[in-house]
Every structure is written in structure tokens, then in C-alpha cells.
Amino acid sequence: MAAARRGAGWDFGPIFAQVAPVIRSADVAICQLETPLGATGANLSHGFIMGAPAAFATGLKRAGFDGCSTANNHTFDQNLAGVRDTRTIMAAAGLQAAGPGSDASHPGQPAIYHAKGFTIAQLSYSYTLDNTVGNTEHVPASAPWTRTNLYDVIGASGIEADARAARAQGADLVLVSMHWGEEQDQHTTDEQRRFARELLSSGTVDYIIGNHPHVVQRCQRIDGRMVNYSLGNALSDQTAGIVAYGGTVSTQAAQDGMIALVTFTRDAAGHITSTEKFQPTRVDRANGYVIRPVSRTSDPASWQRTTSVVTSGGNSCGAKPVS
Question: Composition bias, kind Polar residues: at what positions (predicted)?
Fold first, then answer.
């Protein structure tokens, strides 16, 4: 976070400045927020415990984001107070949130967006919320209601039920954020592929946004609907130490990411189709952690790593790089 220090406060504007035009070009822009908000100097991110200042939400909003998913393995890094603070801070900044709610009366999702005649619902799930190792069905004791954000607890059928409920509330599109897969592995797991197949074939989910591997994974179309298994890292300080976790790719790939630009089109009969373009990105850790858009000419190695992975496996999505 030191790169965002401005005197006694924080300014995240420079970090997002180069990708902000791409983010703002979307009718709805959604991020994956893998840190609780509200941290001060005493509890900022350290080691594997995440925490970011409230100003980060302002930075996201000014960059063009409309909301974020919040279900991930760091959701409870600042305990239940952090979950509640994150929700309050996001709302104050004008950001919506899909993920664990603050109490049993406020389930926390779906987040609802409106754009170009579409009502869009976003749902968010994770394999764990508090990094309980080896138990993907462990529910934080202080927040039993969050069981509904654990995909191994509710299964694909539970996610489909949530999607149907969102449609009953008027959603034309249902987007599902999944925190899944193996860290540092550009290959998808059996579990990722199984959930993607079940959800997209059910007809209840229109698009799956994947995160957690911290490297880019491929895009796949299943029964006419798409999944980006992992968008990689947008802003991260991951270093060579992550290799100790058995990663199968170079640490250079942990600095790569992508902005998926998915266009949904509805024809006269009400049938919805989707197409994807993507903007490869890279975290410039050496120069203030600026998120840089990557092109074939500006950073050929990063561009090639991201593009080759996204379009691997036959590129059933027909995804194309913006630059």
C-alpha cells in the first residue's frame, strides 16, 4: 500500500489511471475485492492477512467500477467487523457488493445493476471465507448465515436456486463470481469445470467470472454461455515466494491480468447472446504498482502469456484481445 501514500492519506488514482478508460467504457464494471476495507496503519495487509484503507473504495469508484464481489478466502481476515465495515465503506463510496452480508437479515446478494434495458444480478461464492485449511464446508462461527456463500456447502443446485430467485426479482442476466481453482496454476481443475458445466447448462446463469488462481486461465463457452475461469491479478504484490505453494507457472504470470469486456445482446425474440473482448494488463511493481494495459508491442511477453492462455482449448468463446 505504500505506493498509494499521499502525505497522511491515500490516493489510489495513479494506480488505476492507465486502465480507467477501459473500465469506464463498460456500462457495468465489476471487480473482485480480495481484501476487507477499513484497515488503519495497525491492520493493513501483512503476510497472508489482508486489509486495505477505506480510501481504496473511493479509488475503485473513481476508476469506473460500479461494484465488486466480496466472497473469497480473505473475507474474514479482519473478522466479522471487517465484513461489516467493508459493506458500509463500499456503500458510502457508491459501490455495490455481492457476497457475505453483515447479518442474518441482510444476506448480501444479489447485487443489482441496470444498463441498456437489462437488469443484471451478480452473485458471489467461494471455496472458503476464512482460510480454514482442508475444510471447504467450514462456516465462520460468528456468521452462520454465510454458509450460503460457500459453493461446496450449497452445491451447484444452491447457486442455481439463488439465480432463479434473482430472475424472479426481475433479473434478465445473472452473473456468478466464483472464487475457485488452484493458486498459480493456469490449468483449470475438475471442480471448476464441473461447476461451470452444471451452472451454464442449467440455463439459470449467463456468465461466470472466476478468480483465486492469481494467474489468467482460459475462457470457455458451454451451451452458448461463457466462463472466464480466472482473470489473473489486477493489483497484487505477489512475489517469488508464492512458488513455495507448488505453482506451475513463472512468477511473471502472477503479475499478469485481464479486463474481460463481455457484450450481451438480446434479439427481438428475447434470446440473449454474448461475445468477449479482453484487455491484457500487468502490475508494474517496480514503478508504484501501476496497472498497465498491455499490447502486443508494449509488452510482448506479458501479452503473449495472457492471450495464449485465454484463447487456449480452441477458444470456444471467440475472445479477442483489445490491443
Answer: 300-314
Residue 88, domain extent: 4-238+269-321
Determine how many CB atoms are found less than 10 A away from the CB of residue 150. 22
Give the chain's largest Cα–Cα span: 56
Q: Tell me, what amino acid is at 179?
A: H
* Residue 313 domain-assigned (yes or no): yes
Mean per-residue pLDDT, 198-210: 97
Report CA torsion sign: 305, 246, 72, 264: positive
**Residues β-bridged to residue 67:** 30, 96
**Number of structural domains the chain divides into:** 1
Nearest Cα residue to 96 out of 44, 57, 141: 57
Residue with cell 457484450: 263
For residues 12 and 225, give the distance between their C-alpha atoms in angstroms, rounded to a whole number: 34
In a domain, 260, yes or no: no
Contact criterion met (CB below 8 Å) for 294 and 303: yes
Q: Is the pLDDT of residue 127 over 70?
A: yes
In a domain, 262, yes or no: no
Question: pTM of the entire structure?
Answer: 0.93
Domain CATH for 159: 3.60.21
Instruction: Note the residue count of the chain.
Output: 323
How far is residue 290 from each of residues 65, 81, 259, 265, 281, measured CA to CA in Å? 17, 30, 15, 33, 10
